[in-house]
Amino acid sequence: MKRILGLGLFLLMFGLISACSDDDTSKEPASTPAGQTTSEPATAVAGDDIFQKSCITCHSSGDITGGQVKLDATKIHSDFQKKEDLYGFVEQKMPKSAPGSLSKEQYDAVVNYLWDQK
Asked: What is the pLDDT of residue 24?
């Protein structure tokens, strides 16, 4: 019984660790819908999607609930004076299990999503 419980716990931990390091190798930027002149709406959607795929196991943000650490927009803006500062931190430190593993476009999208949280 202890072996089965231990194996189950091992598989659960392996699954959680794998989820933290979502290695999305697609590097192509999302296409812009016809008539759309700015990338803001597309970026917001992509940032939300990337957050749910790469960050949700450790973080919650806005209406998205996930891990134990809730990202608060007020704290983000007090900790980082400029969006570029937040970008530098996220690119160098996140995801925690595989820092720097996302594409530039993915980091741009998720930082824009976080920066625009109210």
From this structure: 47
